[in-house]
Amino acid sequence: MFASYLIGLREGLEATLVVSILVAFLVKSDRRDRLPYVWGGVSAAVALSVGFGALLTFTAAHLDSRQQELFDAVASIAATVFVTFMIFWMRTAARKLSGDLRAKLSEALGLGAAAVVVMAFLAVAREGLETALLFFAAAQGAGATSSPLIGFTLGIATAIALGWGLYKSALRINLGKFFTWTGLLLIIVAAGIFKYGVHDLVEGGVVQVLTAPAFDLTGALPPDAWYTTLLNGVFNFTPQPTTIETIAWVAYLVPVLVLFLVPARKGPGASRTPSATPASAAS
């Protein structure tokens, strides 16, 4: 549940910030008449994301066992690639996110109502599709349980509440630190998703090397114990992983963590870490 909550919170807050910046810009610019077009684009993006998630679930449910293993493997590896790119992109893009969105919306306003709808749609759709893929991969790794959906829903709800508080200036959080800490946690989650993808490749018969157990901790971590379930749900940790799964986990986690912890280079105008209020950024 925690991993799904983190995905919902992180991805949901990114999307909420985007919407808040767009809405705040229109309000500050006295263009409230264009708000319905923004909400129309946002609604279309949400519908597309939900539909994409449903398509992934429907496809996985109508495959035979080997096809499903391969499908889950591809989804897990793709989710790992996307979330890794997003983590590093957001580390630098957060500094200029508000300015870029305001510039694009200003240009769209000059082109007409349809351009505003498309601009809002594209701004949110990327986050939504990425979230759907990442959640699907995490849920597949968690197995047949409702916990991922509950955690994801709570994460989205928390993100919306935070976004509303930021928009109303009732809350102030350091977005730089927020994205740094959630980025670190998501890297660990992504390492588990990548490990699960490799596991599915083994189960699907694509990978047939180094499939012997790397170690066995079932004595210290019984599979039915709550703390084992917690480790599995958050980090996709299993007490008896294969050698290839362990190599995949380490091969992803170590270099990505090192690269993430190296301070990002700041451009000429990027000396300040973004604050937390989209509304103030749009004024």
Automatic annotation (TrEMBL):
User: TM segments?
Assistant: 6-27, 39-61, 73-93, 105-125, 145-166, 178-198, 246-264
Localization annotation? Membrane
Membrane association type: Multi-pass membrane protein
Any one GO molecular function term? ferrous iron transmembrane transporter activity
What is one cellular component GO term in this UniProt entry?
high-affinity iron permease complex
Looking up Pfam families in the UniProt record yields:
FTR1
What keywords tag this UniProt record? Answer: Membrane, Transmembrane, Transmembrane helix
Per the record, the similarity remark reads: Belongs to the oxidase-dependent Fe transporter (OFeT) (TC 9.A.10.1) family.
PANTHER family, per the entry: IRON TRANSPORTER FTH1 (PTHR31632), PLASMA MEMBRANE IRON PERMEASE (PTHR31632:SF2)
Protein name per UniProt: Iron transporter
Lineage of the species this protein comes from: Bacteria, Bacillati, Actinomycetota, Actinomycetes, Streptosporangiales
